[in-house]
Write a structure and sequence with these properties.
This protein is 42% helix and 18% strand. By secondary structure, the protein is an alpha/beta fold. Helix 2 (38-47) links the parallel strand 2 (32-35) and strand 3 (54-56).
């Protein structure tokens, strides 16, 4: 028997009319649908009169359910993977299943569609390229502090997801670690009470001071690329800029020099060097 296929199917992030015709055709044709929350996905399937076997696949059962799905596909089954909203594999365990399927040499097909991060970026009013998607910040502890420290110097638009009950806390941490940058707070995208608030981080704190409901995507302006940046206290960005401007080093060489001299995270230096390379091309 020939091997089957895993279809990674994007579904609406709110408005059910946003699903694609191809996604509907795929959901009607597969043998099985693996959903993050079967109760949530069943509403979508019922709306479009789709009747297919439905099982759960989420962070709590992925270690046991994953092998079952792998076996199903290896035996020739056609499986659709869906998440609660948007594209599977973005801030959910779907990416692990995709990696496992590919490791077995089986086929994965993308059925593209909505993604909250792209929808928010497109209407944010901030630069759309380059950008970095960082998912959900750690909710507490040292990991959360490291997260905001580590990404503070990214010189590009940054996108985060956040739960409504943590929005004010996250805005406070953004202000503390990243300073008062322009931000767009997208809430309940494509739904009845959709809102996109644009302003500074301080402005957003005041606007949402009484709390907020709904799914939230944050689009934040990147760090300024200059020696006066408060996160460049040792002057490494200025030195990196000089290397790139004069053509004294390649991106790889310049990154190695700065990392060795200042101990800055390699990823942060490399991304900054790439941006500077474009600036002085």
């Amino acid at each position: 028997m020939s091997s089957g296929i895993l279809y990674v199917v994007a579904t609406p992030i709110g408005n059910l009319a946003d699903i694609s015709l191809r996604a509907l055709d795929t959901l009607r044709s597969v043998d099985l649908i693996a959903a993050e929350d079967t109760r949530h996905s069943r509403k979508l399937l019922a709306h479009y009169d789709i009747h297919k076997p439905l099982i759960s696949y989420h962070s709590q059962n992925m270690k046991t359910r994953g092998p079952q799905l792998l076996q199903k596909i290896h035996s020739g089954g056609r499986v659709a993977l869906v998440t609660d909203a948007g594209t599977p594999g973005i801030s959910d365990p779907g990416s692990l299943l995709v990696q496992q399927i590919l490791a077995m040499g089986l086929e994965v097909v993308s059925i593209p569609g909505p993604a909250a991060l792209i929808a928010a970026l497109a209407v944010s009013g901030l630069p759309t390229q380059p950008f970095a998607f960082l998912g959900f910040p750690p909710s507490r502890g040292a990991g959360r502090t490291r997260f905001f420290h580590y990404y503070a110097a990214l010189p590009m638009t940054v996108i985060l997801y956040e739960a409504p009950q943590r929005l004010l806390r996250t805005l406070g941490d953004l202000l503390k670690f990243w300073n008062n940058r322009p931000i767009a707070v997208a809430r309940e995208l494509t739904k009845r009470y959709e809102e996109v608030y644009r302003g500074t981080i301080v402005d957003a704190q005041a606007h949402f001071s009484e709390g907020v409901k709904g799914e939230i995507t944050l689009v934040i302006a990147g760090a300024e690329l200059d020696a006066g940046n408060t996160k460049d206290t040792d002057g490494w960005i200025g030195e990196l800029e000089a290397l790139m401007k004069d053509g004294a080093a390649t991106v790889k060489e310049a990154t190695a020099r700065i990392v060795a001299k200042y101990g800055v995270a390699r990823r942060t230096v490399y991304q900054t060097a790439l941006l500077l390379k474009k600036k002085y091309r």
